[in-house]
Structures are given as structure tokens and as C-alpha cells.
Amino acid sequence: MEGRFANLWRLTVNESKFVESALQSELRVDGRGLYDYRKLTIKFGKEYGSSEVQLGQTHVMGFVTAQLVQPYKDRPNEGSFSIFTEYSPMADPSFEPGHPGESAVELGRIIDRALRESRAVDTESLCVLAGKLVWSVRIDLHILDNGGNLVDAANIAALAALMTYRRPDCTVGGESSQEVIIHPPEEREPLPLIIHHLPIAFTFGFFNKGSILVMDPTYVEEAVMCGRMTVTVNANGDICAIQKPGEEGVNQSVVLHCLRLASSRAAATTKIIREAVEAYNRERSSQKVKRHHTLAKSEVSGPIVVVRKRQQQKKSSGQEKAAEIHFWLWLWWLIVTFWR
Amino acid sequence: MEIDREDGRTPNQLRPLACSRNILHRPHGSASWSQGDTKVLAAVYGPKAGTKKNENAEKACFEVIWKPKTGQIGKVEKEYEMIMKRTIQSICVLTVNPNTTTSVIIQVVHDDGSLLPCAINAACAALVDAGIPMKHLAVAICCCLADNGYVVLDPNKLEEKKMSAFAYLVFPNTTLSVLPEGSSVADGEPVEHGIITSVTHGVMSVDDYFLCVENGCAAAASLSAFFRKNFQQSQRDSSKAG
User: Fold this and answer.
1) What is the pTM of this model?
2) I need a labelling partner for A328 at 20 to 30 A (CA). Which of A46, A146, A312, B67 fits?
3) H/E/C letters for each residue in B112-171?
4) What pLDDT digit, counting tens, does each position of A147-158 carry?
5) 8 A C-beta contact, residue A1 and residue A94
6) Closest CA to A107 of A72, A64, A60, A52
7) Packing angle, helices B115-130 and B206-241, rounded to 10
8) Which of B9, B185, B223 has its CB closest to that of A300?
């Protein structure tokens, strides 16, 4: 569609030169230091396993769901999980609806590799009946607003959603002990997933042939930068994944510098995520306690609609007419009986 | 005989409404609308050059993209897109920006019943935030019919499943007249009471349908009041800040 090409956002030459020359003097356009992150807020939704992460202007939502499926033949005792990334056209005018483009696939793969290869999510606990039924966890990431550095924000959204997700409890029973009964949340408390550690992604942007290094680039800086690298580390100091997709080559010393920067920040970010999850869990459990005391009728105060009383008047006039008829009939009966 | 609703509401009571606009930075207009637990996010990208092949190039064109919470896009989502597109086309002024496409993107955050009306309200708020010229707002409400013939407004998901039939109704918003007599609805009908869109599920008799429409019309008045108050408040806040 030719019309679409007229709508792609492009950075002007003035803007890109300004960003580059500011970086030469170690200044960033939004006033941050070279290695400073934007403000991170993590919020949760009504259901288990829904998270909303805001990193500066970048806005990502994560949803976790699970269903029972047959396991893979080569891993009969393990559950599985899969990540679906949706680059919503909401986030950026250049995102097309329909099946995901390269960057969406790359983002999904980075997060998937970090969680799977480092065994952050325990898949053996997802097994219900070995060889027959296991839980398959599905993580949907919706990118709502592209303010730059989608990988980091989406990674945190996925982790926050996984930590707050509760899967239904199920028991194996029945005559041949082959039947699986899934208990609804009213019957039995749903169970959390077992997560061993939190792999956190940090993205670096390279400028000026790899000599200038920046953390957490905005979308303006992403359009200017000549190379990028994403490092996923956890709070224990393990490197879970490194992704450097081509572009400008950088020196080994720069790569090691990035790794050191990332591991020094991992503990702080892990703490933020865990605190947010704990606060949410506490709020959730206090709400449950309230539910037991009241009679399951919450105080819902919405606007009350006043319907005009035309219909009711019609009904009442009809009733009045009927009452009148009844009266006259009674009177007539009275006269007739007393005449006799 | 009143119906006992699970959350203690009367049959004519809506769930608590919440609307916030300008929540996203890249889209030209954005809004989030929640009715109780149902929450929908809408974003608008303003007129872009060019229209699609089958569209009339002498008018402005609208496209709606519906994003469900999880899962693939199927027929239900396509149907919602089509309904919303026709609704938005009828409330917007199409002659102002000919040969342009405006995109409205809907993201479902949580579905607890009455999803399409919530989405239409969110889209209206987002269009206002983006400054797209419109004739009037579209105010949407879900009315369902219980077994004993009573009309229940704004059901949640459990109630929707139990009801024998329900209708999504979209009305133009009610006008606020300067003269105090003009805004009262004691005698005579309000000027605009036409239905823009009506989608029904299940079987209901003609009288029941008209009863739903009446109740829906009255609900549109209170929703319009909420819209007005919300927009005026944010205007006052932004003028204080600016």
C-alpha cells in the first residue's frame, strides 16, 4: 500500500546530528547520565498473571495463561512454555497489524532463550501425568507504547506476570487413576509457578563506531545508534544470554565493560520486581480475608439510571380501569341480589 | 418484583465508570475506559495519507484493529472491528479530511462482560483526545433480558451467560441545552434518541426489545453526563497546568 510509506516516522538529519554531538560531550537528550535508566513502574491487573510495566515512555503488558496439553515425546515429564509477542499498531505508527515482523520475533526469542536455557521457570513441576498431560504456560506480551528499549521492558513484564500467575490445582484420580480433575479457584487455592531466579535483560546502544556506550536508549536514540547489544543476567551474577545482532563491531573490552555494568544493576532491578510482587500478593490476600467476612456483596457504586415512568403509568391506568370495571360489576350484582 | 444481582446492584445501576485520556505517548490520541472490571485501551493515529483500495477516496476512511488479550484473531474479533468501524464512520465528519485513513486500535485489558460497549466508549474518548472532528459522541450500553422479562443494564460476564438475550445499543450522546427548560425530559422526547448501532444475541420479543431500547436510552443520558464531566474536568486541569 503506497499510502503507508508516506506515514513512516523518520528522524531528521538535524535531530540525529544533535543526538550524536550531545553524546560526544556525554550528554543525553532527556538529561540522563549515560548509564541511567528511566523510571520503572510495575502494576498488576485484576487477574492472576497480568502485569503492566512502564519504563519511561515505553509501555508493555504481559498476560500469562496455561492449559493442559500432551507433552513433547522427548520430554514426557516436563511442561512447556511459549512466548507470543504482539507489536500492536498502537505502539508505533510503523508497526503493521498481522503477523509479527523481525524485531517482534527477535524480542520474543531473546526473552524465551533467557528463561528456557537458564531454567528460570521450573518445567518439571508442571507435569501432571507423565507422558500424557502437562501444563503448557503461554506468555502474551503486548507492546502498547514504543518509547525505546522494548526488550528490557518486555522482559520485566514477562517476569512480573510469571511471578504473580497462579495455575489451577489439579489432582489425579478416577478409577484407573488416569483422570485429571482440575479444581476451580473457589474450591482450591491456585498454585504459583516455581521460578528459580530472575534473568533481567539490559540493552546497550553503541554510537560513534562503538566508542560511546549508552544504557536504556529511547526511540530517538535507537534510530541514531550504530549497534546494540542485550545482556541478560541474574542477581547471582550468572550470564543467561547475550545478543548482539550484527551491525557495528565493538572491542572485547567494551563487551566486558557492558557485562560488568549489567551485573552491577541486576540486584537492584531484581529487588524492585520482587518488592512489587510482594506488595501485590499482600494486597490480594488482604482482599480475600475481607471476602470471608462480608456476604460476597461488594460496595458497587455506579451511576443509577432513571428510566422515565411512561410505561409504569400505562400499566397503572390499565389497572385502574380494571378496578373500575370490577366495582361496577359488584354494584350491579349487589343491586340484583337485593332486588330479589 | 426486583431481581437480585450478585454484586448488589439494582437492575438499572451501572458499574463504576472510569476514563482517563492521553495515557500513551506515541499515539495521537489514547484513552482507557473501564466499567467495573472490564477495561479497554484505545489508541488513535490521526489522519494518514491515502485510503485503502476499496474505500471511497472522496471521504475520510477509518480502520479499526481489535487486539484480544490472548489468542489468535478470529471471526469474533473481525466482527467487532466491522461493527466499530461502521459506528465510528457514522459519528465522524467524513468530509473534512478526504482521502485519509485514521486508525483506531483497541486493546482488551480485561473482559468482565459488556466488552463491545466498553470498547466503543473508549474509542470515542480516544477520538476526542486525538481531535478528530465528530458530529457527536457514540454512547454504548449493554441491556440484557432476564427470564422474568426484566431489563438489566450493564451485566458482568456471569450475568451475560445466564441471561436469555442481550443487546448492545449505541446512541448519540444527549445534548445539554443552555435553557433550563430545554434539558428536561419531563414531557416529550429528547431530540436525539435514534439508535446508531444495535447488536443482539439470543431471542427476545419485539416488546422486550423496545423496553431494552428505552432503558438503554435513559442509560445513555447518564453516560453522556459522565463523558461531559470527565472531559470538562480534564480540560480544567490542563488549563490550570498550561
Assistant:
1) 0.85
2) A312
3) CCCHHHHHHHHHHHHHHHHCCCECCCEEEEEEEECCCCCEEECCCHHHHHHCCEEEEEEE
4) 999 999 999 999
5) no
6) A60
7) 30
8) B9
